[in-house]
Design brief:
By secondary structure, this protein is an alpha+beta fold. The protein has one domain (about 40-165). About 30% of the residues lie in helices and about 25% in strands. It contains one helix and eight strands, in the order αββββββββ. The longest helix has about 55 residues, at about 15-65. About 20% of the residues are buried.
């Protein structure tokens, strides 16, 4: 009669503890990397969203400024009122900063929000030479510069009203 031995295969307690220690060290090392990557992604997402909002607003502003009506007497830009944070054209369209919301003015309607959480909005009115400040005589502005600042992002654009073509 022969005796057969039963062989047991598995981890010893020492091997199991070593595996747990190695896994713990790897996890502790990788956690800051994963957390940093997640914070970077969130920050990049916020910047991208802010940039897209400001770019959309500037695109709408350019369209409004380019399509500005012709002024009285068939010359100049038809601007009814102008400040450094608001411009209203003679047809009732315009742009203004109301609190922290940048709004597009619609003739006979309620203002339409273009961008929220705006820190500052500045309009500059330039003469034909591109240098002279025309804030006192905005109807003679040949270029309008718009700057929006929001969440540490500043974007600017220069618009040329089409009324000067052919004048």
């Amino acid at each position: 009669m022969s005796c057969s031995r039963i062989a047991y295969h598995g981890f010893t307690l020492l091997e199991m503890i070593a595996a747990i220690v190695v896994t713990s060290v790897i996890s502790v090392t990788l956690m800051p990397v994963v957390a940093g990557a997640s914070d970077s992604y969130a920050s990049a997402r916020d910047v991208r969203n802010s940039t897209e909002r400001v770019a959309f607003a500037l695109d709408r502003i350019i369209r409004i400024a380019r399509e500005a009506p012709i002024g009285e007497g068939g010359t100049g830009v038809g601007i009814a009122s102008a400040t450094q944070s608001k411009v209203v054209f003679s047809d009732g369209t315009g742009i203004e900063l109301s609190g922290t919301t940048l709004e597009m003015l619609v003739p006979g309607g309620n203002p339409v929000p273009l961008c929220f959480d705006v820190d500052s909005f500045v309009i500059q009115y330039f003469g034909e030479d591109g240098v002279a400040d025309m804030i006192l005589t905005p109807t003679q502005s040949h270029r309008l510069a718009f700057t929006i600042t929001t969440e540490n992002i500043e974007m600017s654009v220069l618009a040329y009203p089409r009324v000067w073509i052919g004048q």
